[in-house]
Design a protein that fits this description.
The protein has 136 residues and is mainly α. It is 94% helix and 0% strand. The chain is rod-shaped, with a radius of gyration of 32 Å.
Amino acid sequence: MKKLKKFDLLQIKEKLKMQKSICDLNGLEADAEKCQKMTNELQKLLEEYNSNIDKIGVNSFISKRRLMHKILDQKEVMLNRLEFLENEKSVILDEVTKSQVKREIFVKKQTAAKKQLQNERITKDDDSSVLRVNQR
C-alpha cells in the first residue's frame, strides 16, 4: 500500500510539474507573439522612412538617419529576444516530454505494484483457507 501511495504522489508531482511547464510555455508564446508584432511594426516604420524621398535639410537627414539606426538596433534586439524565446520553448517542451514519460513509467510501476499486492492477498487468502481446513 505504501508503494501505491508513493506512486500516486510521484504522479501528482509530475502532473504539477508538467502543468507549470505548460503555463510557462504559454507565457513564452505570448511574449514571442508580442515581440513578433513589435518587429513587424519596426519593419513598417523603416519601410516608411525609406520610401519617403523628399528634399530635406541636413539636420533633418541626420536626425532621420539616427532614428533609423535606433529602430534597426531595436529590431535586432527583438530578433535576439525571439531567438532566445524559441530556445526556451524547446527546453520547456523537452521538460514536458520527460514529465509525460515519467508519468507513464509511474503508471506502469503502479499497476505492477497493484498486481503484486493482489497476488499477495490471494496467496494469503489461500493460506488462511488451507489453515482453516486443517484446523477442522
